Batch of 4 targets.
Target 1
Amino acid sequence: MRCGLSRSARATRAAILLAVVPACATAAGAQETRGQPEAKTAVSLRFSWKLKGEYAPLFVAREKGYFAEQGLDVGLNEGAGPTAAFASLIKGADQISWMPGLYSMQATSQGMPLRIIALYNDSAPLVIASWPEKPIRTPPDLIGKRIAMSAGETGAVFMPILCEKNHIDCSKIQFIHMASGATVPAFIAHQVDAVPVYRSNDLPIMKGKYGDVFAEMDEAKWGLVAPGSALVATDDYIARHADILVKFVRAANQGFEFCEKERLRPRISC
């Protein structure tokens, strides 16, 4: 499993968007110097999707004790789509969510009391992988093809934007709707012509098993620039616990730094 993010992600790592962070960080530092060990603060993070490679640095941060060093007891929980993640944040069942930033931006524009607290990827690394006998390298190549999709998947939700930006008729693409986790196996079995995947997750695994045999269409190159991996919290939690968020981001960044430093060593598999 690969860990770490793309070059663009490294350039935007820890883009903290909280105006209150400096003051809260100072207050937190003062509190920690009193000499009394603090009880660990429980923090529950909900991913917006099933477990996958891009989440690895957060698990590294937990296993290496980076969260514990910040006084946090962090739970990392599998998700079932952005809608479920939003609901869990609003109810207070989880305090933070990891999701594509574009979903949070859309929710905020619709009045949901949410905010991105850190952006790790300025553009989600979305790729449409296809077989060389029916290659998809440009948007017009999508016409007439069978594309595997699952509900809530980023590549599926924003396909109409890709069509609009490239002046193609989405109704002429055959979208085959499947359960989460079924799209890549269906593609490998040649039941569909193509599948949207993340360059940082499914694609490296596919290439590791079958070689560099796939045709690829980089969706960002054709106009689908969707802010990617981000940490999201509610306005209420930010107002009451900004110091906890500062500590969480600090520890998460250590997880990313570890993975980036160690990923070239063959025994490391973040």
Target 2
Amino acid sequence: MAASFVIESLNGDSPALQSLLRKSTDYMSALYPAESNHLEDVEALLPPAGFLVGVYVSRAMIGCGAVKLAADAGAAAAAGSDESSYGEIKRVFVLEEHRGRGISKAIMQTLEARLVAHGVHVARLETGIRQPEAIGLYRRLGYAERPPFGSYRPDPLSIFMEKRLGG
């Protein structure tokens, strides 16, 4: 039976979070060249620009996830459409020994719920082609492929996805 876990908001100054993010960065660096890694620093994910969550098992942080709040430039934004606002899912990571237990799914659902609570009804993400488990999770959660967004450019190692959230 899998251990239960708790998801809590983070303020970014946790040594456990810093350690987890270093492991995430090392993992991504082993999979992709620097130009295909689109990692964000913690400061870019803190309120009001975004939010972070940590996952704990027995008070040990074993996973994390974040959202960076953004808005599209152009006609939709000029028209004041709420479709111009979106949240970019970032830094979803679970320690290897805890994977396969539904923790990443719970992180994603928590981030999506917080987006809706903030009045944001579009979630977007960029992931790499060498992460089939992550791609499968995002598809099962209703994310569909889309063209690059924001400052991203086409990259043969990247997949861009989007999901409309309830509301």
Target 3
Amino acid sequence: MVHLDAALGEQLLDVSIRQAVAQVLPDVYNKVTELDAAVGGQLADAMELRAKDPAQQAMLAAYLADLNLPDKAAVVEIGCGTGAISGVLAARAGVGEVTGVDPSPIFLDRARDLSAGAANLSFRQGDGHDLPLPGVVRLAVLHTVLSHVSDPVGVLGEAFRVLRPGGALAVFDGDYNTISVATGDIDPLQACADAMVQNFVNDRWIIRRLPAMTAAAGYTETRLRIHGYAQTTDPAYLLSIVDRGADALVAAGRIGPELCQALKSEARRRSTAQSFFGYIAYASLTARKPG
């Protein structure tokens, strides 16, 4: 699945939303079917905002360029959220029918609204551990999903099942051990980044184990690429990480609301002063099911 962004970070200052988030931590994305409409809608907003980030779009284009698909290839995006990536896939030359699968009816309602008019794009409710599809797919995409699921090996196995022989797998996710907003030793903002990972990511090590996991699942022709992602000016996404971490610290009772707001304000002060720095490494992996 996807990450929260700046708009949601600001909205989480509302007490009712903070309480809702506290009830589902850790990893809110692993429990999307349990979210109320307000929180689910804000998550959906954040997915769309992140999908419009030019740097995120460039990373998507880079790993999709590694794929050589036959004409009219059937594609599934597992954990499609609001369908932003599914929409990009459906617009690619040579791609046939694209099916987005997600467990959240809130996300799927948004996806259907946003994709109205796309003749080769549809959405189905389902879980990546038990996909409602036969084995006819040429490409299975997992974009910012595996780090959040409870059984990534099982999801990779389901993707393998629905792929036709010779079909391709594409995985993209964050290497969350690299995330940093620190500009020196003992930087208080780094505590926010660490708390975000602890509370919003199910498996921070997933990228490090991904090549071995895909090989064990039967995939071959594996290619792993690292994509560096840094923000210094207009750091909307990394500011949202600070916000999420600060809110998680409050929800856990580790800091008070005054310090929470002070940490968020410090991040924005740095942004205004052009002294903010945030970084995370992403990785993409492409592989094939033997023909």
Target 4
Amino acid sequence: MTKLKELLKNELTEEELKIAPNSFEMIGNKEKSVAIVEIPEDLEDKKELIAKSIMHNHKNVKTVLKKVSERKGEFRNREYEIIFGDEDTEVLHKEYGYVLRADPQIVYFSEKEGVERQRIAKDVKENETVMLMFAGIGSFAVAIAKSQPLVDKIISIEINPQAVEYIRKNAAINRVAHKIIAIEGDVRQESIKFYGKCDRVVMPLPLEAAKYLEDAIKCLKERGKIHFYTLIDRNNFSSAEEAIKTICEKMDKKYKILNEHKVTEYSPKKWKVCIDFEIL
């Protein structure tokens, strides 16, 4: 995330600066990036000024997108408006020694979660079979395969056909296609094929993951880890812990919470968090 108010301090009035966004997201590389920004309704008439200020200070930004909606629909996409710049918004994003091709107008991707991808990737051990639910463009899959080259395989299930194509592209350009199995389809239906075959399950879809906890546990061998992402109010992890407890009791499974932490701020009152737990 890049500080925005600092860029706008000579462009907006003091009152306008108070409601201006604090930062914006930048996806891409030194040659071509896309900036994504939230524009408050009261600054709608300043959106082009804001976009031009971003592009003036970051020469690699070729397009500025304004968030128009929350994530919605079967593919969890967000609507954007091009405020200024090129219509072609596909970029090659670089992080931690690998690259990810993505178009934020077509598929979900967040550079803010790069640190989290690395955290999970560094935890994966040799010879593990990893199940990646809601795989998106394969960002977690590539991170894992590059960090742990001795991983057995990474099963990546995604319902959006365009995102599945990106999984395959990203696996190929990072030379890890032999480790990543890209599967197009519904997680609940496709995961059945892998019941009892996985050492670890990653569930990076906070709005829906709780509905798939039982499927995730069934994918594990007798023991295994689950990285469960969900939303909480401020610092209250109890609702997320209760969801895990309810499913484990229903399935007569013993479990142990290993770690819980905030990932990103989802809204002023909600956080995307991850609870790592182990089925014993």
